[in-house]
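Researcher: We plan to redesign the surface later, but first we want a full-length starting point. C-alpha cells attached.
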C-alpha cells in the first residue's frame, strides 16, 4: 500500500457582491483604467461592505459551501487552519470563530500569517496532520479582507487588493495523489519594503499612529516586484527540477494573483503555456491568502484526476512557496 498523502477532495470560494471597478477607483485616487490594467492586469475587485463584518463572514460562506458540495458533516472536521493577515480580532483566532459558526464542534483551529503565501503554508501544515495518520479531515482556508487595511488615497496599494475567501478539504489518499512536495521560504529583511507599521506590540495603536496613517499597508512597489518575480518564479522552477518535471508535464500552474507581469514571468521560466495558467486577477485583484484557493474554485470543472499542478506564491515578510500536487478527483466525482 502506498504511503498516506494529503489530497484536496473539495474546493469552494466566496467573494462579496460589491464590485469596485477601476473607473470608480479613479474617482477616489489619481489613476485610470488603462494605467491599472497595463501595470497589474486588474479590472475590478470585490469589497466586503457593512459595519462589523470581518473576514470570517467570507470564510464561513466558503466553508459552508465546501461542506455541502463534499457531503461532509461539520462534526467530521478535525481541524481548521485559516491563513489570513486580516483576522476578525487579535484573538481569539478567526479559525475558532469559523468553526463555531459552521458547527465544527469537534475541530481545533488556529490562524496562520504568511501574507500572500499563507494558503500554501497552511496547506503544507495541514498535510502533515493528514500524513501522520492523526487526522482525517482538515479544512484549510485562505481569506483576507484587504479593504480593511488599505488607504484609498494611496494608489500604490488600493488599486491592487480585493476581498475574498477560499477553502479546501484535505483528506488521506492511498493512490499516490495529493501533495507530492512543498518548498516554503521566508526572509524577514523584506519588512522594510512591505509592511503595516503600527498595530502590533512594537507600535501599539495610538492617536499618533492613526493620524500618521500607519495602520495601512505600505509597499515599495518596484522593490517588491523585483523580489516577487525572482522568488516566485524561482521556487516554482526549483520544485519542478527536484521532481524531474518539465513544462509539458504540468497540467496547470496555479500562481498567486498579485500582478499579471509576475505571473507571466513565472510561467515563462517554467515553460508552461498561457492556456495552462490559472488566472482570475482581472476580476478579483489580489485577495492575498484567498487568491490560490479562488483560482482552484474557478477552474475546478477543468481539473482532472491525476493532473499535475504547481502552486506558487510570494508575499510580504518576505515569504514565498511552491507546492507540487496531483489532483485527486475529476469533475462530477
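Model: Full-length starting sequence:
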Amino acid at each position: 500500500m502506498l504511503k498516506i498523502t494529503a489530497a484536496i477532495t473539495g474546493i469552494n470560494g466566496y467573494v462579496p457582491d460589491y464590485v469596485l471597478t477601476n473607473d470608480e477607483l479613479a474617482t477616489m485616487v489619481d489613476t485610470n483604467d488603462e494605467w491599472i490594467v497595463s501595470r497589474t492586469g486588474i479590472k475590478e475587485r470585490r469589497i466586503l461592505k457593512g459595519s462589523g463584518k470581518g473576514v470570517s463572514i467570507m470564510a464561513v460562506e466558503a466553508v459552508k459551501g465546501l461542506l455541502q458540495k463534499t457531503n461532509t458533516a461539520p462534526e467530521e472536521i478535525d481541524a481548521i487552519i485559516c491563513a489570513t493577515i486580516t483576522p476578525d480580532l487579535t484573538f481569539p483566532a478567526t479559525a475558532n470563530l469559523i468553526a463555531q459558526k459552521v458547527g465544527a464542534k469537534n475541530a481545533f483551529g488556529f490562524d496562520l500569517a504568511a501574507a500572500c503565501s499563507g494558503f500554501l503554508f497552511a496547506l503544507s501544515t495541514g498535510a502533515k496532520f493528514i500524513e501522520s495518520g492523526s487526522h482525517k479531515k482538515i479544512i484549510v482556508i485562505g481569506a483576507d479582507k484587504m479593504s480593511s487595511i488599505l488607504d484609498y488615497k494611496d494608489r500604490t496599494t488600493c488599486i491592487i487588493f480585493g476581498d475574498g475567501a477560499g477553502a479546501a478539504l484535505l483528506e488521506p489518499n492511498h493512490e499516490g495523489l495529493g501533495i507530492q512536495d512543498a518548498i516554503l521560504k521566508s526572509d524577514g529583511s523584506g519588512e522594510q519594503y512591505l509592511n503595516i507599521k503600527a498595530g502590533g506590540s512594537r507600535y501599539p495603536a495610538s492617536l499618533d499612529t492613526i493620524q500618521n496613517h500607519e495602520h495601512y499597508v505600505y509597499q515599495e512597489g518596484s522593490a517588491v516586484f523585483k523580489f516577487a518575480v525572482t522568488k516566485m518564479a524561482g521556487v516554482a522552477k526549483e520544485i519542478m527540477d527536484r521532481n524531474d518535471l518539465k513544462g509539458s508535464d504540468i497540467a496547470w500552474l496555479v500562481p498567486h494573483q498579485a500582478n499579471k507581469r509576475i505571473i507571466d514571468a513565472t510561467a515563462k521560466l517554467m515553460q508552461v503555456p498561457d492556456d495552462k495558467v490559472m488566472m482570475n486577477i482581472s476580476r478579483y485583484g489580489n485577495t492575498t491568502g484567498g487568491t490560490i484557493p479562488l483560482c482552484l474554485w474557478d477552474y475546478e470543472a477543468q481539473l482532472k484526476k491525476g493532473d499535475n499542478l504547481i502552486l506558487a506564491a510570494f508575499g510580504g515578510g518576505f515569504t514565498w512557496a511552491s507546492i507540487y500536487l496531483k489532483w485527486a478527483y475529476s469533475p462530477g466525482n
